[in-house]
Every structure is written in C-alpha cells, then in structure tokens.
Design a protein that fits this description.
The chain has 1 helix and 16 strands. With 181 residues, the chain is mostly beta strands. The strands form 4 sheets. Strands 7-9-15-11-12 form a 5-stranded mixed beta sheet. Strand 13 (140-142) and strand 14 (145-150) form a beta hairpin. The relative contact order is 0.18.
Length: 181
C-alpha cells in the first residue's frame, strides 16, 4: 500500500471503530502524533488510534490531560534538575517548557548525551512549539555539549518553550540553570 498505515474496522459493542493499525508500532510521542489517526497517551506511554478528543477504541482510556494529538505536550523542566529523555527514535522533536520567574539572571540550557552534536535546541517565548523554521533562539555546539545561552535582556517572565530535534541520539539529559557569574 502507498500509505504507511492500513485502516481496519473493528466492531466493538455494536459500534464501528476506525483505527490505524500501525499506531501501535510507534514508541514516542513525536513519532506517534506525526501519523494520521494516531494519538499518544502519556499515562500509558502508548500510541493508539484516535483523534482530537481521545482514543477511538472505547476500551482504551487515557488519563485526563495525558492525551496528545497532532502535537506533544511539553515536559516541564525545573531549574538545576536534569531531565533524562529516553525516546530512541530519531528525526522527531521532544517538547519542553521552563517557567521563567527570575528576570535578573541569565539562563543556560545544556544537553549532554553521548552524541550531543546531533541534537539542536530551538527555543521561543512567542511560539508554543518552536521548530527549525520558527524560533527565537537556537543552540550552539560547545565541545560535547549542546548549549543554549539566553541573556536576561532577551527574556520576560512566563513560559520558555523548547523543542529538541532528535538528530541521531537518545538517552540525553537536558538541564536548565543560571550560569555562575
């Protein structure tokens, strides 16, 4: 078939349900929501057939606020606390959000995986999902670290959205912190 997914019909409790068979083969949010008729349930860490309101199979339930369709919810980062990304699929974005409260100090975001040079951080306060074609700030390479340095004059209080393009690695750590003066 020309499409990467096949559609099949299930009969469940007398109701015809359309599901995309291949949804079950995706193991990360970014990969899952890029497919038509698929959504990611964070609470189950699973890709299921669905739409904007939730899974299409009535037997599959997803916790309130945990359903992702067409876009992934951002993982919230806390200052100085590394978050370990475990998705092993390349070519997709991982979404993060940091709430800027202190507007008197600069902020740095570092990624330090084994293969950091394949990752790129795109950040913005003006866009919820910054990407390679829409961002305010972009990371640079510093030895084996990918770094995003933000001068406090560039920031305002509120959410800072970051997307990390998964070039060729997984299992990286991302951390937000105020650099020493």
């Amino acid at each position: 078939m020309a499409n990467s997914w096949m559609t099949m019909f299930l009969l469940f409790a007398g109701v015809a349900v359309v599901c995309a068979q291949d949804c079950y083969t995706y193991h990360s949010c970014g990969n899952c929501v890029a497919q038509d008729y698929c959504g990611w349930c964070e609470s189950a860490s699973a890709c299921w057939p669905g739409n904007g309101t939730g899974p299409t199979n009535p037997a599959q339930t997803c916790a309130s606020g945990a359903w992702n369709y067409q876009e992934c919810n951002s993982k919230k980062l806390r200052e100085g606390v590394p978050f370990k990304q475990n998705d092993g699929e390349q070519g997709f974005y991982n979404y993060y959000m940091y709430n800027v409260e202190d507007t008197e100090n600069d902020i740095q975001v570092d990624i330090f995986p084994d293969m950091a040079n394949t990752e790129v951080i795109y950040a913005a306060q003006a866009y919820v999902n910054p990407r390679s074609n829409r961002y305010q700030w972009k990371s640079y390479q510093l030895n084996s670290i990918v770094r995003l340095s933000l001068n406090i004059t560039q920031l305002k209080q509120g959410p800072l959205y970051m997307n990390v393009y998964n070039g060729n690695s997984w299992g990286y750590k991302i951390v937000v912190y105020q650099p020493p003066n």
